[in-house]
Amino acid sequence: MDDTRPGGTDGLTTLAQEEPREELDLRGYFQLLVEYRQWIAGATLAVTVVGFLYAFLAPRKYTATATVFIDRGMQKGPKDVSNVGSTDLTTEMFFNSQVDIIKSREVLQEAVNDLHLAQAPAFQGKNAVDALRNMTSVQRKRDSALFSISVTAGDQNDVAAWTNGIADAYDRVTLRQKLQYLQEADHLMADQAAKMEKEYTRLKQAYGEHLQDTGSYFPENQKLITDSRIQGLELKRNDVLMQKNEASARLAQLRALQNASTDPLSLAFVQANPAMQDLLGQYNQAEKDLAKMSTQFTPKHPAIVKKNEEIAAIRRRIRNQGLLILQAQESQFAAINQEYASLTAELTSLKQQAIEGTQQSSQSEALQAGVDSVRKYMDLLVEKMREVDVAASLMSNQTRIVERAETPTSASKPNRKMVVLLSFMLGLMGSVGSVLLVRAIDTRVRQPEEIEQKLHIPLLGTIPVHSGETKPIVVEAFQNLRTSLVYCSDHKAKNVIMVTSASAGEGKSTVAANLGITLAAAGDRVLLIDCDARKSTLHKFFQLDAKQGLSEYLASETEDPSPYIMPAGKEGLSLLPAGKTPANPPNLFSMGKYHRLIQSAKASYDWVILDTPPVLAVTDASIIADEVDLALLVGRFQFTHLPLMIQVLQQFERIGRPVAGAVLNYFEYGRHYYYRDYYYRHYHYYYGKKPPETWWDKATRKFRPHKNRDQAPRRATV
Fold first, then answer.
1. What is the pLDDT of residues 335-371, one digit of tens each?
2. This prediction's pTM
3. Where are the beta strands (DSSP E) in 321-431?
4. pLDDT per residue over 567-586, tens digit each?
5. Domain boundaries, the chain
6. Cα 539 to the chain's mean position, in Å?
7. Could you give the 3-state DSSP secondary structure of residue 71?
8. Beta-carbon contacts of residue 109 (< 8 Å; ≥ 6 apart)
9. Domain made up of 449-703: CATH architecture
10. What is the H or E stretch that residue 159 is in?
11. 151, β-bridge pairs
């Protein structure tokens, strides 16, 4: 089994073939929130301030509510247990339609005219009816006949009067509709009664004159037969006539549906239609869904808008169904009218036959039968008038204002506490969410642990940002890197080290130079070779004037590189500069002379460190990798992107030179919560310095005892 740890059998490691299992890193999330605490606090405060300003500067609105009881009435007559479900459905449909009736243009126009709202300041320049409808909301209390009528507006002193005006207008409009229906029904029945009265008088007078003039006699059996037939046809025609009158009355009401302002659901026989009941069920369900959604979303939410469109579509279907019922009723009326004409013709023919067949009789008996038939029809007409009156009472509703609206004492909108709380929660969640979102899409190296977790290579060293305060820590970091390098190289058995990076600007030359200084300080002989022929920087780091270097040596005929190697100012440390930039740098590293140079340096020095160009920028690093024992990949904290480092590892794997480990450069302890604590406490303790105050120390300073607990204890002296 291969040993991929530092100091293993080959000192190298490869990318794992399997992706690691993602785990919830609560410590990392906490660190991220602490790092961006100022942004989170600022954004939360800004949104809260905006919400606070809105809550206290937005125009205040007041709501007044009146409660109305709507009694549909009791169904009279024998109870039909099998029709209980249909009755409940009709009742629900009736109550649901009252919500639209209360907010209908007719009711609101009545309220506007009664309250003179067109001249009110709140309605200036607006359509008073539409403006009042936008202010009004109607809600039925569940499983009851109580309705709450609410008006929300900015006029505190007038909103109650407007609410009561709508309730009163609804009461007057419904009463007026009831009276109008009764008047139409009575007018129709009165016309029919007057016609029957004239017909009865005429027949009775004709019968008397006939008896007086003729005094005719006809056999008893013939009279009974003829009378029975005529009487049967008369009764049948009377029934058809009653159906015709009823159909005519119903048709007169249905024709009102041709006016767009008439609600089809206001007609009881339209509600009872099976197809209309199915649409009613859909309408009730949509209204319930809208009521549920209204508690979760605003009126402009796409789901609310879509549901309102669905309800409007159902209303149109209900109206279309009402028009279909109108067409069917007109067809039925035409059929009844035709049947009535047919019966009349048949009755006339039968009477004529009876007169002609019975020379002794007929006319007197026919007249008597006509008189009796008209009398019976008049009795039936009176009964029907009573039934229509009862039906009108059942169809109309009886309203009663249970609780009138009162002037509100406090504003209903905006709810200041809720607005401030919601703005605070929105600001907090938005700021935290933005931090997490930015962190999710940010692929830069932000934590040292990401090197090993995502690249699957050892993190050999973490080099902090160099400053006057962090100088001892930087020295300590390079010493740790030297220790890790010793173990990776099997105690200098593999001493040709390649220092590279994914892209430029990550500090690989700085790491190579300081690593060479650290190795030389331990007493080793170190040779630094600047292999970046395009952009050499090592000689500038040591402030040397490099007039010739690696490119000149490889172009010369001598095999001795010593004339081109320069002392770097540190004991045991030497530098071979890059020299002038050649026309084709990759050809230099493909030469056999370059191979002999590396082998000679490997035997002459304890460490040979190669500073190479970025791997993804040029191909030089991939060619140089063939001559090295170990490769170090340098990444810069919060600069290098992890996908680029993964591409470097994949490229090295393809050429058979896996990376031994990574070095995280320019690490900022102050931006990393746990490492910052380590930096502030441990290093300052060991170097005898007082740790600087953190933001937590400053915030809790006055709550701590006066004893200076932050003073580092003195080290024992020998």
1. 888 888 888 888 888 777 666 555 445 555 566 677 6
2. 0.49
3. 398-403
4. 888 888 999 888 888 877 78
5. 26-54+420-441, 63-214+223-403, 449-703
6. 61
7. strand
8. 129
9. 3-Layer(aba) Sandwich (3.40)
10. helix 159-213
11. 64, 136
